[in-house]
Design goal:
The structure holds 2 protein chains of 2 kinds.
Chain A: E1 4-5, E2 10-14, E3 19-21, E4 24-25, E5 32-39, E6 46-52, E7 60-61, E8 64-69, E9 74-79, E10 88-96, E11 105-107, E12 111-116
Parallel strand pairs in A: 2-12
Antiparallel strand pairs in A: 1-4, 3-9, 5-6, 5-10, 7-8, 8-9, 10-11, 10-12
Chain B: E1 4-7, E2 10-13, E3 19-25, E4 31-37, E5 43-49, E6 56-57, E7 64-68, E8 74-78, E9 87-94, E10 103-104, E11 108-112
Parallel strand pairs in B: 2-11
Antiparallel strand pairs in B: 1-3, 3-8, 4-5, 4-9, 5-6, 7-8, 9-10, 9-11
The chains are: A mainly beta, B mainly beta.
């Protein structure tokens, strides 16, 4: 079964508008972490934002915020005021279990975001 | 400030040849990972090493072996390359505690003909 599901293969947004990229996850662990990464066309992987399962507040980093709904097992990425440079592939990833167990991170299939001028 | 360094950047192999992908990190991270990225499939974990001296299989370990040579270095070996192993390979590392994201290398584009 898929542990991380990103249901939007492609998304389009107008410059300066906000966009939400969906991510749902499946785990039976109480302790886990959720990450979002950006991969521009140049290929490098850039860490954007992290949400821990016990964090009560939604994570924010500049124009990125994470809409974490634990009961629904969703961790959607919200990008505000989109810029042309936000055009990229975006991956959601999950760390299961506590860090002491030697964690592995599982990635979703990604969402290709295109920002239109 | 090198971070995670992968070599080579590009490689073409014939079916049946062997090769080793090298990875080194200079951030004193405990955990290291090898992923492969194929179109439409995201990143899939091949092997990982939670700490020096340990290695574990990921989702797609068949056809690969790894060595955690020391804390800094984690190599991936293809003993007998197959066309299905054509992919982009990423090495990554992380501290392994708390909020510790993966730091990625720039990838190796491998083609097996």
């Amino acid at each position: 079964a898929q542990k991380i599901t990103q249901t939007q293969p492609g998304m389009f947004v107008q410059e300066k508008e906000a966009v939400t990229l969906d991510c749902t996850y499946d785990t039976s662990d109480q302790s886990y972490g959720l990450f979002w990464y950006k991969q521009p066309s140049s290929g490098e992987m850039i860490f954007l934002i992290y949400q821990g399962s016990y964090d009560e507040q939604n994570a924010t980093e500049g124009r990125y915020s994470l809409n974490f709904q634990k009961a629904r097992k969703s961790a959607n990425l919200v990008i505000s005021a989109s810029q042309l440079g936000d055009s990229a592939m975006y991956f959601c990833a999950m760390r299961e279990g506590s860090e002491t167990s030697g964690s592995r991170l599982t990635f979703g299939e990604g969402t290709q975001l295109t920002v239109n001028p | 400030n090198a971070g995670v360094t992968q070599t080579p950047k590009f490689q073409v192999l014939k079916t049946g040849q062997s090769m080793t992908l090298q990875c080194a990190q200079d951030m004193n991270h405990n955990s290291m990972y090898w992923y492969r990225q194929d179109p439409g499939m995201g990143l899939r974990l091949i092997y990982y090493s939670a700490s020096e001296g340990t290695t574990d299989k990921g989702e797609v370990p068949n056809g690969y072996n790894v060595s955690r040579l020391n804390k800094r270095e984690f190599s991936l070996r293809l003993e007998s390359a197959a066309p299905s192993q054509t992919s982009v390979y990423f090495c990554a590392s992380r501290v392994g505690q708390g909020v510790s994201p993966l730091h990625f290398g720039n990838g190796t584009r491998l083609t097996v003909t």
